[in-house]
Design goal:
The complex is a heterodimer of chains A (115) and B (114).
Chain A lengths: L4 E3 L2 E4 L5 E6 L6 E7 L5 E8 L2 E5 L7 E4 L6 E5 L8 E8 L9 E2 L3 E5 L1
Chain B lengths: L2 E5 L2 E5 L4 E8 L5 E7 L6 E6 L5 E3 L5 E5 L4 E6 L8 E10 L3 E5 L3 E6 L1
Parallel strand pairs in B: 2-11
Antiparallel strand pairs in B: 1-3, 3-8, 4-5, 4-9, 6-7, 7-8, 9-10, 9-11
The chains are: A mainly beta (115), B mainly beta (114).
Chain lengths: 115, 114
């Protein structure tokens, strides 16, 4: 069964450093998403991406964040200058373009720890 | 705006007892509703989904949920709890607002006592 994969599974970085989280969505999917979950809290939407551009973003997704689909398979989330409060689990998701319904398939997550 | 409210951050049941996790949603357009389960230090696993077909939805591991539009509810049930059901459960709503996104509830941690 096809699945969304994410690398690395765990990333430790120093405050102020740039990190890139990588995701490989399911191959025939056209919509891509990033979510984050701070430890012990709920999962929060960050951004959705379609046709090589951001289709929607939350207030969390400020100028420190960017997304990119650098090739036909990868989808990345970059945090330019990490802060302590960026420590969280980051989930990538993807979905097909299906009219009326759009189930998202989630990856296993990357745990980001900012020291 | 869409939102999800899960009643009870913690629910404790005895093994073999009924599991009932409550979820109410708010949406200005017909919603798609989901329940996800998250085991410690793991990702999100889809339990079941409502996509405007049958209002009673059956999922994996013996779970089911009923969509009640009049009550704006989507409660999750399981007739008989197993120890392996102990996890965090998230109710979620997804609405097409030009781009789909999923809004999650705060989660309910299920404890199962032997």
């Amino acid at each position: 069964e096809p699945e969304v994969t994410q690398t690395p599974s765990h990333q430790v970085t120093q405050m102020g450093q740039e990190v890139i989280l990588r995701c490989v969505p399911i191959s025939n999917h056209l919509y891509f998403y990033w979510y984050r979950q701070i430890l012990g809290q709920k999962v929060e939407f960050l951004v959705s991406f379609y046709n090589n551009e951001i289709s929607e973003k939350s207030e969390i997704f400020d100028d420190q964040f960017s997304v990119e689909r650098p090739d036909g398979s990868n989808f990345t989330l970059k945090i330019r200058s990490t802060k302590l409060e960026d420590s969280a689990m980051y989930f990538c998701a993807s979905s097909e373009q299906v009219q009326g319904y759009n189930e998202q398939f989630f990856g296993p997550g990357t745990r980001l720890t900012v020291l | 705006a869409q939102s999800v409210t899960q009643l009870g951050s913690h629910v404790s049941v005895s093994e073999g007892a009924l599991v009932l996790l409550r979820c109410n949603y708010s949406s200005s357009v017909p919603p798609y509703l989901f329940w996800y389960v998250q085991y410690p230090n793991q990702g999100l696993q889809l339990l079941l989904k409502y996509t405007s077909a049958a209002t009673l939805v059956k999922g994996i591991n013996g779970f089911e949920a009923e969509f009640k539009k009049s009550e704006t509810s989507f409660h999750l049930t399981k007739p008989s709890a197993h120890m392996s059901d102990a996890a965090e459960y998230f109710c979620a709503v997804s609405v097409n607002t030009g781009g789909f996104k999923t809004i999650f509830g705060a989660g309910t941690r299920l404890f199962v006592k032997a």
